TrEMBL record:
<keyword id="KW-1003">Cell membrane</keyword>
<dbReference type="Pfam" id="PF00122">
    <property type="entry name" value="E1-E2_ATPase"/>
</dbReference>
<keyword id="KW-0547">Nucleotide-binding</keyword>
<dbReference type="GO" id="GO:0005524">
    <property type="term" value="F:ATP binding"/>
</dbReference>
<dbReference type="InterPro" id="IPR027256">
    <property type="entry name" value="P-typ_ATPase_IB"/>
</dbReference>
<keyword id="KW-0067">ATP-binding</keyword>
<dbReference type="InterPro" id="IPR036412">
    <property type="entry name" value="HAD-like_sf"/>
</dbReference>
<dbReference type="GO" id="GO:0046872">
    <property type="term" value="F:metal ion binding"/>
</dbReference>
<dbReference type="InterPro" id="IPR023299">
    <property type="entry name" value="ATPase_P-typ_cyto_dom_N"/>
</dbReference>
<feature type="transmembrane region" description="Helical">
    <location>
        <begin position="56"/>
        <end position="74"/>
    </location>
</feature>
<keyword id="KW-1278">Translocase</keyword>
<dbReference type="InterPro" id="IPR023298">
    <property type="entry name" value="ATPase_P-typ_TM_dom_sf"/>
</dbReference>
<dbReference type="InterPro" id="IPR059000">
    <property type="entry name" value="ATPase_P-type_domA"/>
</dbReference>
<dbReference type="GO" id="GO:0016887">
    <property type="term" value="F:ATP hydrolysis activity"/>
</dbReference>
<feature type="transmembrane region" description="Helical">
    <location>
        <begin position="305"/>
        <end position="329"/>
    </location>
</feature>
<dbReference type="InterPro" id="IPR051014">
    <property type="entry name" value="Cation_Transport_ATPase_IB"/>
</dbReference>
<protein>
    <recommendedName>
        <fullName>P-type Zn(2+) transporter</fullName>
        <ecNumber>7.2.2.12</ecNumber>
    </recommendedName>
</protein>
């Protein structure tokens, strides 16, 4: 079988790797190719322009051209034959040797010149894509300034241990993942999360708590290796080893993604397995054309070699890997980790996306949306009582009432409540200004000796619930003060992100949530989603994704932790905010490093562009072969065939490299 040596070897060695033996540095292959071309031109000029020159002189030039043009080709052929692979390198050598044996030294040298030049330029182009990935690894500094018991010293980042306090000066790159313990600054997180605006960071409130539970540190205090400090000097306590930082994991996973084959790549490899034996059989038949056609064996041999050169599926072999490599590298530079060709292509062919609600479409933090006092009750009284009582509670809704209630009250003094008692699942009882206070669900009233709410407050609660609000009723003594409505508010960027996804061709977007159906409906309507499925347990979310997948290619977007089962059942699982979550990095097919939904349209748009370029490349590759094979059968020479053959390969690679310049908003 012959394919192009650019395809991955099973032993893990990638494309032509001439790193060993580069005598004249990284451009040795190009220099050798140009030397081949120069000797070819000199030999041809002597042969045509100096007929009186000795006959051996142009031959010496051509032999020199063979040496420089065939140097790396011979090495590749030997490597491939050791792996029992008959590839295009071997074929080119056979064709060049055949041309020399027929006396066509110049044509054989031209073949090797074009082939070696094509290789050199292709390696340069593919090297640009690889450099985009390797540049990620160089973002983190090599040393760190550490404060230890014996003073401040500079150490290699590999020697950092968890708990080290690292000093970061203004405008320096951070050497470690961790949390701020001193100082404040605006951190440019674009290298890791893709966020375009620096993020303000401040020290953690409780260092001991952050040290004990680093995964719970909020984004306002968490920092990543490779990001850039702003104008303030800061001190960071390291929470991960240098080999385990978010940046290190991204680099590792992006490198692994290069080897993951996409559906199109698997198709082209299957096609090659069928196509190559057919071409070999055709070449063998053409080798015996002199038996039935009035021509010498040398002409039949030459034609057979030309057909083999023309039919070699080099461009097809590189068509998909080059685009995948460029697409994955561009995504990583934009704060999106795509784990290989399959997720990249699948992401580009989606027609439906399902979103988890909490923390994905919404902030994951409830806020007061409505304050409805009873008749004759001032709003500030209702809020003052609610804030005073909830200040004693550690319930998540209590924190929202205290935070937003204080904001609505301004600087108004609030008397303290006492004697808080929890009625599990229903609400709380406390004492405020010497009177008993009941605060909780409407269902709490009318049970266990607690009198019913008055009809007006009941009506207010029903109205809020119909609007998808979580409700709290408040009573002090014998008076019903009114109702408070809360809701997990949509992210500021969600509407714009969803609109851009529709513009990219996502025709169905829905939300799946464990919240009540009315709550889910309210948020879906607010954001402009097509549907909302509420009251779902984790196993129900899996069933919902399985149902959707039967109808269309669907992505599941979540936090990568409690959504992991549903994400695993989707065509593509997408995790948000993965820079701070090991689980999300491991479970998702695509990870948005920043906790920002606006990176999703970028990822989908890039994937769609990648699919388009892959299809372009496959069409170019097969089209050139379809034209060259009959042309060589009917007399096209090896030289022009090689020129077209290598030209199509270069077109494919440089077409793929356009993805490195992809800008968000391109279709």
């Amino acid at each position: 079988m012959f394919t192009h040596a650019r395809s991955e070897h099973k032993d893990g060695k990638g494309e032509h790797d001439h790193a060993h033996g580069r005598i004249l540095g990284p451009n040795t292959e190009l220099i050798f190719s140009l030397a081949c071309g120069a000797l070819l031109v000199v030999g041809f000029a002597i042969e045509k322009l100096l007929p009186a020159a000795p006959g051996w002189l142009p031959i010496v030039c051509f032999v020199g051209a063979y040496f420089f043009g065939g140097f790396y080709t011979v090495r590749e052929a030997i490597d491939n034959l050791r792996l029992r692979r008959f590839e295009i390198d071997t074929l080119m050598l056979v064709a060049a040797a055949g041309a020399a044996s027929l006396g066509a030294w110049a044509e054989g040298a031209l073949l090797l010149f074009l082939f070696s030049l094509g290789h050199a330029l292709e390696h340069y182009a593919m090297g640009r894509a690889k450099q985009a990935i390797e540049a990620l690894a160089k973002l983190a500094p090599r040393t760190a300034t550490v404060r230890r018991a014996d003073g401040t010293l500079e150490v290699p980042v590999e020697e950092l241990v968890i708990g080290d306090v690292v000093l970061v000066r203004p405008n320096e790159r951070l050497p470690a993942d961790g949390f701020l313990v001193k100082g404040s600054s605006a951190i440019d997180q674009a290298p890791v999360t893709g966020e375009s605006i620096p993020v303000d960071k401040r020290p953690v409130d409780d260092v001991a708590e952050a040290r004990a539970r680093p995964d719970t540190v909020g984004s306002a205090s968490r920092v990543f290796a490779g990001t850039i400090n702003g104008a303030g000097a800061i001190e960071v306590e390291a929470t991960r080893l240098s080999s385990d930082t978010a940046l290190a994991k991204v680099v590792k996973m992006v490198s692994e993604a290069e080897t993951q084959k996409s559906p199109t790549q698997r198709f082209t490899e299957t096609f090659e397995r069928i196509f190559v034996p057919v071409v070999l059989a055709l070449a063998i038949l053409l080798l015996f054309a002199w038996v039935v056609v009035d021509e010498p064996f040398s002409s039949s041999f030459y034609r057979a070699m030309a057909v083999l050169v023309a039919a070699s599926p080099c461009a097809l072999a590189i068509a998909t890997p080059s685009a995948v490599l460029s697409g994955v590298a561009r995504a990583a530079r934009g704060g999106v980790l795509v784990k290989g060709g399959a997720p990249l292509e699948n992401l580009g062919s989606l027609s439906a996306i399902a979103f988890d609600k909490t923390g994905t479409l919404t902030e994951g933090k409830p806020r007061i949306t409505d304050v409805l006092p009873a008749d004759g009750v001032p709003e500030h009284e209702l809020l003052s009582v609610a804030v005073a009582v909830e200040a004693l509670s550690d319930h998540p809704l209590a924190a929202a009432i205290v935070r937003d209630g204080r904001a609505r009250l301004g600087g108004r003094e609030i008397e303290e409540a006492t004697e808080l008692k929890s009625l599990t699942g229903r609400g709380v009882v406390a004492t405020f200004a010497g009177q008993p206070v009941w605060l909780g669900k409407a269902e709490m009233f009318g049970q266990d000796g607690i009198t019913q709410l008055n009809p007006a407050v009941k009506a207010s609660i029903a109205k809020l619930r119909d609007a998808g609000r979580t409700t709290m009723a408040v009573r002090i003594g014998e008076r019903d003060l009114g109702a408070i409505g809360l809701m997990d508010t949509p992210r500021a960027a969600a509407r714009d992100a969803l609109k851009r996804l529709r513009d990219l061709g996502i025709t169905r977007m829905l939300m799946i949530s464990g919240d009540h159906q009315k709550v889910a409906d309210a948020i879906a309507k607010d954001l402009g989603l097509d549907e909302a499925w509420g009251d779902l347990l984790p196993e129900d979310k899996v069933a919902a994704i399985q149902k959707l997948r039967k109808e269309a290619k669907v992505a599941m977007v979540g936090d990568g932790v409690n959504d992991a089962p549903a994400m695993a059942n989707a065509t593509v699982g997408i995790a948000m905010g993965a820079a701070g979550s090991d689980v999300a990095l491991e479970t998702a097919d695509v990870a948005l490093m920043a906790d920002d939904l606006r990176h999703l349209p970028f990822a989908v748009g890039l994937s769609r562009r990648t699919r388009f370029i892959i299809l372009q490349n496959v069409f170019i590759s097969l089209g050139v072969v379809a034209l060259l094979v009959p042309a060589t059968i009917f007399g096209l020479g090896i030289g022009p065939a090689v020129a077209a053959h290598e030209g199509s390969t270069l077109v494919v690679v440089f077409n793929a490299l356009r993805l490195l310049g992809y800008r968000d908003g391109q279709a």
